[in-house]
TrEMBL record:
Similarity remark: Belongs to the YciI family.
SUPFAM superfamilies the UniProt entry points to: Dimeric alpha+beta barrel
Protein name in UniProt: YCII-related domain-containing protein
Domain YCII-related: 17-107
Parts forming coiled coils: none
Length: 135
């Protein structure tokens, strides 16, 4: 089993086919989208492939270390930033092909007009330890 992070970009990735921003969806369209996400996660929980997932608020702050005894440096929030991650899901699957299959299915979540968004999702494998060489 391998873990993968599925990133849902609200902005910053390639444009979706149904590229109507969520702030222009009706309450019913938002509810249908959220229900699809919930049902998808529940199905993966049933197969043991779901690890975790969360939607993210558009606001965020960049933080970095600025030296011993000094407060962290912050910059933000940047809701208007070029790249905005709307949410993420961690899956634990048998293969890269399965991760791609699930990401494709998740991409079909409904959006404006109840039509699939066909959004681009970023699929990132978790970094694993390099194999140990034994002689």
């Amino acid at each position: 089993m391998a873990k993968y992070l599925l990133l849902k970009h609200y902005r910053g990735g390639p444009a979706a086919v149904n590229d109507v921003p969520m702030d222009r969806w009706t309450p019913e369209e938002i509810s249908a989208h959220m229900q699809y996400m919930h049902d998808f996660a529940a199905r993966l929980e049933g197969t043991g492939e779901f690890v975790d997932g969360q939607a993210l608020a558009p606001e965020g702050t960049w933080v970095r270390y600025d030296g011993e005894g000094r407060p962290p440096v912050t910059d933000g929030p940047f809701a208007e930033t070029k790249d905005l991650i709307a949410g993420w899901m961690v899956i634990d699957v048998d293969s890269y092909e399965r991760a791609i299959e699930l990401a494709g299915e998740l991409s079909a979540a409904p959006g404006a007009g109840g039509k699939p968004i066909h959004e681009w999702l970023e699929v990132r494998p978790f970094l694993t330890a390099p194999p140990t060489i034994t002689e």
